[in-house]
Amino acid sequence: MASLMQQLPSALVALLPVLVFLAALLWLDSYKLLAPPAVLAVIGVGAAIAAASYPLNAFLLGRADIGVPAFSRYVSPLTEELLKGLVVLVLVRTHRIGFLVDAAIFGFAVGAGFALAENLYYLHLAAEAGMGTWIVRGFGTALMHGGATALFAVAGMALQSGAGAATALRFVPGYLAAVALHSTFNHFADRPLVAAIGTALLLPILLHVAFERSERAVGQWLGQGFDADAEMLELIHSGRLSDSHVGSYLQSLKSRFHGPVVADILCYIRLYTELALRAKGILIMRENGFEAAPDEPTRAKFEEMRYLERSIGATGLRAVRPMLHISQKELWQMYMLDK
Question: What mean pLDDT comes out for the span 36-61?
Fold first, then answer.
């Protein structure tokens, strides 16, 4: 018990800074895009990635005759940022991430989980290390891991440029930037305090820029998207859809699909647009401090959408996409309502 109490200050310094920083990111998100349980789950995945990286790095170190210092500078950043980045890619491709702000938070959460697992291991391995070691690991190494993965996620999302589906190729520049940050940090192994101070100063600036850009992007998307969705619904409900570009496109589909399928496509467009408006309304309510969550009628609409998707089929859904202007943000908002 005495030993545990003696280690408590070291553990707090090694583990708390990255968690406090992550909590601050969640608090700064005025739209409350991410639920805390989802963030906690991602932290757990990041910790599992740290456990997986150790045997991989040990294997590579045994094959590379370059010594530990060179390995930590040039090889481990490549493997560790790749493993952490794969988690971010899965989150993007499953539509858990739609904006820079949630990319920053989820990316930082992956790195935070990685850092927590790593620092717990070092607390066990070097229990007698001085407080200076844990200050450097808590404020330097841990924040570096979180910041590097956040940089990867933010850079990748920024390069999506409204594309309908995220492509791994667009995350390559972010991966290289994350590796460069990680490698630069490890180059200061003999001056850990300098590395820790540099990380603690640089990281808030980078994330502040990401948050500002994201807030503007969300606001712009809400304004433009609300208008477009409202116009679409007004056309459908007024019976004037046939006079619009969407109506002309639907007419062209009659030669490719049976009449009932075209009718299902129209129903699908209406449901999708209603849900898109609902998602944007939830974001606006959250921005203004109101609690808002999907209700039972919303979930019933998703059940109807799934039925229509099966009825329309993969080919029909591909035909629908041009009418809905589906991008990564729209895919994300559907996930937000359906979770």
Answer: 94
Same domain, 185 and 254: no
| 3-state secondary structure labels for all residues of the chain | CHHHHHHHHHHHHHHHHHHHHHHHHHHHCCCCCCCHHHHHHHHHHHHHHHHHHHHHHHHHHHHCCCCHHHHHHHCHHHHHHHHHHHHHHHHHHCCCCCCHHHHHHHHHHHHHHHHHHHHHHHHHHCCCCCHHHHHHHHHHHHHHHHHHHHHHHHHHHHCCCCCCCCCHHHHHHHHHHHHHHHHHHHHCCCCHHHHHHHHHHHHHHHHHHHHHHHHHHHHHHHHHHHHHHHHHHHHHHHCCHHHCHHHHHHHHHCCCCCHHHHHHHHHHHHHHHHHHHHHHHHHHHHHCCCCCCCCHHHHHHHHHHHHHHHHHHHHHHHHHHHHHCCCHHHHHHHHHHHC
Same-domain check for residues 128 and 95 = yes
244 and 210 inside one domain: no
Candidate from 78-82, 140-144, 248-252 with smallest mean pLDDT: 248-252
| 202 shares a domain with 250 | no
Q: Model pTM?
A: 0.72
